[in-house]
Amino acid sequence: MKKLLTIFTPAYNRAHTLPRTYASLKRQETFNFVWLIIDDGSTDNTRELVKSWQKEDNPFEIIYKYKENGGMHTAHNEAYRLINTELNVCIDSDDELAIGAAAKIQQKWAEVRHKGYAGFIGLDADLEGKLIGSGFPKGMKETTLHGYYAQGGSGDKKLVYRTDIIKAYPEYPEFPAENYVALAYKYLLIDQDYKLAVLNEVLCNVEYQADGSTNTMFRSYLKNPRGFAFWRKQCLTYPSSFKRMVVDAMHYDSSCFIAGRGTDIFKSPKKALTVAMAPAGLLLTQYIRMKGRQTG
Fold first, then answer.
1. Segment 6-28, tens digit of pLDDT
2. 56-61: which pairs have CB atoms within 8 A and are 24 or more residues apart?
3. Mean of the per-residue pLDDT values for the chain?
4. 200: three-class secondary structure by DSSP
């Protein structure tokens, strides 16, 4: 029988944390899912580890796909090309699927499947069970991802999407010699057309690694300016507030300057604002260069 859900895990040199993810899948109460691991060019023993798991008597199928290193967004592109289940969710290679989460996903989807949602949004907690950021306001039944944050929501959330919808929107662009584009790009586009049902349950327990993206952001700004400029341009196309638009214009300018493409500020969908924010963008560029050296 075809499974309902694909749990996909992008992995780059995470052989030391993947066993935790694997163990969390084996602890589930229901196994109506497959596990897809996208190995993003690992140089450790990730391949051998996963191959050994594939030989075990697991209650779920494990699919392994190796690709050359290109960054998280390229791993998501590869995953979406391969997924053929009705739903999909990303569980990172240093995270755990929360106890009972597979059953909660299956139950929630049975409730909202025919209501036109793109999927649903759940909660993340740390490994000790403490909620990441804020929860959902009392009585909230539906939202968009960016609408939730615009209303004051905070912290990472777990997104379960319909595969047909996630595939209907453009892939993440891939820029030569860069390895970052915000995953929120696809979610922002989907937000324009669909809402997400709210599942007020913890679906994932997370741990942020010292070499994870949240701790290397300044270096990432310097290494991936075209990717960041692309993302800020999308934010300016679909602004959530004027205040946020001003910040995005400044960051767009900065990324254009870092990329050596200063004239691209005139290609902004909010050209007047972006040009007006150019001096602030130059100051931000200097700050990013300084912080990048400090964290390098």
1. 999 999 999 999 999 999 999 99
2. 58/26, 59/26, 59/31, 60/3, 60/25, 60/31, 60/33, 60/34, 60/35, 61/3, 61/34, 61/35
3. 95
4. strand
**The two structure tokens encoding residue 262:** 């200063």
d(CA 78, CA 65): 9
CA 110, 123, 245, 265: dihedral to nearest 10 degrees? -90
Distance between CA 294 and CA 276 in Å, rounded?
Answer: 29
- CA of 172: how far to CAs of 78, 104, 123, in Å? 10, 29, 24
pLDDT at position 296 is: 59
State the Cα–Cα distance between residues 85 and 4, nearest whole angstrom. 6
Each residue's pLDDT tens digit, 195-205: 999 999 999 99
Amino acid at 195: K
Which residue, 213, 227, 212, 221, is CA-closest to 180?
227
Listed residue (214, 210, 158) closest to 17, CA to CA: 210
**Residue 235 burial by Cβ neighbours in a 10 Å radius (0-12, 13-18, 19+):** buried
Instruction: Please report which residue ranges of the chain form alpha helices under DSSP H.
Output: 18-26, 46-54, 72-82, 101-112, 145-150, 163-168, 184-191, 217-223, 225-237, 242-258, 271-276, 278-295
Residue 51 has φ and ψ, to the nearest 5°, of -60, -35
Q: How far apart are CA 20 and CA 17, in angstroms?
A: 6
Closest CA to 289 of 234, 219, 226: 219
Task: Give phi and psi for 66, each to the nearest 5.
Answer: -95, 140
Greatest Cα pair distance in the chain: 62
